[in-house]
Write a structure and sequence with these properties.
Helices cover 63% and strands 0% of the residues. It has six helices and no strands. The longest helix is centred in the first third of the chain and has 39 residues.
């Protein structure tokens, strides 16, 4: 049986509807300096893949998954390739977390392990459910719940917040 062609809205309609979500998530995951570049890269990848989509369901989640992966690619590209003992310190341009609103929270988020940081950001900044977070991180919804839960527990401990 031949499959029916998927009816997708024009790409510009997708941009108009979701650009704020993509920009907000990119800035949350990559920081205010690199966030715009991550968002732009996500839109490029989405535009290239858009004609090949086989479903028009949950396009927002699809876009946010692409954005999260672009941010992860950026972070991975900056990881040192040599032993830290042998490498000189790396200076990264951009505002310090102290310049962001609620600097203690953002510093604590920045200090989380990468997968926890991405999971909690997708959940609370990207407003994805655990299925969306799991899709973005290529894991299960149960693992997504665990990553978010562990991240929140760490943040509560670091910030001295009671979790009752």
């Amino acid at each position: 049986m031949l499959s029916e062609k998927v009816r997708l809205p024009p790409f510009q309609a997708l941009v108009d509807e979701h650009w704020r979500d993509v920009a907000r998530l990119a800035r949350a995951l990559a920081g205010p300096v690199d966030g715009d570049d991550v968002a732009q890269r996500a839109w490029e990848k989405a535009f290239a893949a858009y004609p090949k989509l086989t479903s028009a369901r949950n396009l927002r989640s699809w876009l946010l998954t692409i954005t999260a992966r672009c941010a992860t690619d950026l972070h991975r590209s900056r990881k040192p390739q040599t032993s830290l003992d042998d490498a000189p310190p790396i200076a990264v341009d951009g505002p310090d977390a102290a310049e962001w609103p609620d600097p203690d929270l953002w510093q604590a988020v920045k200090d989380l392990p990468e997968r926890q940081r991405v999971a909690v950001t997708l959940k609370y900044v990207g407003d994805l459910d655990h299925h969306g977070v799991a899709a973005a991180l290529d894991t299960t919804p149960a693992a997504s719940r665990r990553l978010v839960s562990d991240a929140l527990a760490t943040l509560r401990t670091k910030l001295g917040v009671d979790h009752e």
